[in-house]
């Protein structure tokens, strides 16, 4: 039985006038709209809510029907300091501040022709070149591939055998309060296949600017920021675990995790 039939039967049984029937129908419509709006804004609020990185990884594990695993551990101060000093020395030795990196500007389209590469592709290609140069200057650390696909991009491996989840991001300098979402991960499969828990995470932001020159993107390197992510680092979730420049800035200010940076951003 439809709602319309229900209200018609209710009206007939109670001998309601046309005006009273209209009031009942309007009240039902108002309640329905109010409920839909409540559900919409509740969902929107939930999507915007931030939670600790560890909690959202736990949620992914449940969705993947995996048992509890400690996928993010707290940083040891000594290890964090050693990595910071090593990367700072490598940045200085490599004279990366102001370095020009040239990338192909176009890629072939299916069916013929070409198109300009996306910002995401620029970032990936830039890291592929920069990583090799950086590794040449690193003393006691190297980058190795991960098993499976997904998060993180690489393993940072020390000469002592320690492994760290190393996620690579490239971005242009801009407003640190930018709310543009940055995808972190949507699956724990690669973490589980590659690392032994508890796992320490580094999110590396390479800041660059670029110009277009004929067939090339000419990228100028400015600064490298290493975020030593903790279990309590706040992240958001919509379709995947995400962050933003604004969110990660607040996390550092609130001492949820620590950051080191090398080089200077252009004014």
Oligomer: single chain
What profile does the largest beta sheet have?
7 strands, mixed
Strand pairing plus helix content: what structural class?
alpha+beta
Number of domains: 2
Number of strands: 13
The residue-averaged pLDDT reads 85
User: How much beta, percentage-wise?
Assistant: 25-35%
Approximate shape: globular
Radius of gyration: 26 Å
SS element count, helices: 7
The stretches of 5 or more residues where confidence is low (pLDDT under 50) are 42-47
The helical percent reads 25-40%
Secondary-structure element pattern, one letter each: HHEHHEEEHEEEEHEEEEHE
Give the end-to-end Cα distance, rounded to a whole number of Å: 67 Å
Outline the structure in words:
With about 270 residues, this protein is α+β, with helices and mostly antiparallel strands. It has 2 domains: about 5-45, no CATH class; about 50-265, no CATH class. It is about 40% helix and about 30% strand. The protein has 7 helices and 13 strands. The protein has helices spanning about 5-15, 20-50, 55-65, 75-95, 120-135, 190-195, 245-255; strands at about 50, 100-105, 105-110, 115, 140-145, 155-160, 165-170, 180-185, 200-215, 215-230, 235, 240-245, 260-265. Strands 2, 5, 6, 7, 9, 10 and 13 form a 7-stranded mixed sheet that branches. A 4-stranded antiparallel sheet has the order 1-11-12-8. Helix 4 crosses helix 5. The chain is globular. Residues about 40-45 have low confidence and may be disordered.
Structure characteristics:
2 domains; single chain; 267 residues; 7-stranded mixed β-sheet; alpha+beta; 39% helix; 4-stranded antiparallel β-sheet
